[in-house]
Amino acid sequence: MGQHVSRTDFEWVYTEEPHASRRKIILEKYPQIKKLFGYDPNFKWVVTGMVFAQFLLMFLLKDRSWPVLILTAYCLGGVINHSLMLAIHEISHNLAFGHARPMHNKIFGYFANLPIGIPVSISFKKYHLEHHRYQGDELKDTDIPTYIEAKLFCTTFGKFVWVLLQPFFYAFRPLVVYPKPPTYLEFVNLVIQLIFDAIVVYFFGGRILGYLLLGSFMAMGLHPVAGHFISEHYMFKKGYETYSYYGPLNWITFNVGYHNEHHDFPAVPGSKLPEVKRIASEFYDDLPQHHSWTAVLYDFVMDPDVGPYARIRRKAKGLST
Q: Of 67, 98, 108, 244, which is least surrounded by CB within 10 A?
């Protein structure tokens, strides 16, 4: 089963999350960063191109064998779908059409969601914004693994399995830890997605729908682009709870690797986060950082000091300490 992790609990802290205070300090020194706030007008065209690229692949792969479908799903289709999930992350911050047009963002989120195969756009936003607002909160930050996950997947082999199954934990953990009643827009998301999936099956066959779903699943698990799930907030150095990744995969993931910069300035679109780092470099250059998501996955599995427990947690506000 491999080495057992060295930690037996999360890293509990009683300080506020670091991003609000750093944002205030940076803006006092560099007020020009406010000019970066807003949406990127090119974003919607990039996302549209990705969706249509997946449509083209569906047509090209219609009569291919399962081995070809699985290989393409892992190497290409899943990468596109994962990138679309990160586009939905951008859309959750209203960075497709701006805060003045929230419904435009939601409708575009439905569109970006189509090749992923399962409805995630609206539900993701419902939980993700609280991850920003209550980072580390034991109740409201559903990005943090549960105690059950941390206890079950506490060996080298266990962590490997946990990485493989990460899509399930990411999807279902919020429903268990912090359930919220479904909203009308979530039902709309579901209906649109079911209609699209039915169209795919009718015109292209069930294998193509399987290709889309497999790509989404595989690229969220043991896959280089999925390394960001772990690199962002797992504690690789004691006391630090957010980490940026400065590597080439930012090119296909809307710069989600610039994660300290993103949490400091969620109103800045991904395309402009490198500019935040350039302007305020002294605030970021000396923070612990990653340069390879593949290395992150390897270290997470093999290093006994890292695992599901390696997260900073805070008591939920209003609960006794």
A: 67
Report whether 263 contacts 132 (CB < 8 A).
yes
Two structure tokens written together for 137: 């909160």
Using DSSP's 3-state secondary structure scheme, residue 303 falls into coil
pLDDT at 321 over 50: no
Angle at CA of residue 233, ends 164 and 245, nearest 5°: 90
DSSP label at residue 314 = B
Residue 245 has what pLDDT? 98
Cα–Cα distance between 174 and 121 in angstroms, integer?
14
Angle 43-60/102-113 helices, nearest 10 degrees?
20
Among 121, 251, 246, 143, residue whose Cα is nearest residue 192:
121
Per-residue pLDDT, 1: 66
DSSP 75: I
Res 316: pLDDT: 85
Amino acid at 232: E
Rounded mean pLDDT of 206-213? 98
Distance in angstroms (rounded) separating the CA atoms of residues 109 and 88: 6
Q: In this structure, what token pair is assigned to residue 129?
A: 């914004």
Q: Bridge partners of 245?
A: 290
Is the separation of the CB atoms in 153 and 162 below 8 Å?
Answer: yes
**36-88: per-residue pLDDT in tens?**
999 999 999 999 999 999 999 999 999 999 999 999 999 999 999 999 999 99
Q: In terms of pTM, does the model score above 0.90?
A: yes
- Can you tell me the distance from the alpha carbon of 96 to that of 319, in angstroms, rounded to the nearest whole number? 37
Q: How far is CA 112 from CA 43, 195, 229, 250, in A?
A: 11, 15, 20, 19
Angle at 91 between CA 89 and CA 97, to 5 degrees: 160
List of E strands, 205-284: 244-245
In angstroms, the CA 166 to CA 170 distance is 6
DSSP letter for 116, please: G
- Residue 279 in this model has a pLDDT that exceeds 70: yes
Residue 317 has what pLDDT? 72
User: Running DSSP on this structure, what letter comes out for residue 243?
Assistant: -
